[in-house]
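Researcher: Re-running this chain for the archive, since the previous output was lost when a drive failed. Same request as before.
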Amino acid sequence: MSNYVVAMEAAWLVRDVENSDDAIGVAVSEAGKRLNDQDLDYVEVEAGVTGCPACGEGLDAAFLAANTALVGLVLELTVFNADSDEHAQRIAKSEVGGALRDVPLEVIDVIEDGDAPAEEA
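Model: Regenerated structure tokens:
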């Protein structure tokens, strides 16, 4: 059994904001609060980055229209003692998905973590 770092992308809707910086701040704060309420404080929440289609430069993953924003968040956690990367993905989606109901989640990266010590079962 191995440990895996699983990164997921979440689409977070924020209402009544006037700019993308505010939207990102609200999205990160709300997601963090919902995760912490479920004792998932080990999940790291960051604003996502998307590439400019013209130049490839990284831009904040936030789209704002009519004072409503769709913010892309990156959620990252370490899954201990998983049988495979697919197993780690299922565990991560189950843990985070339970706390963030009605929030679309997609696994974007899974890395086997050889540095973290395996927890005893």
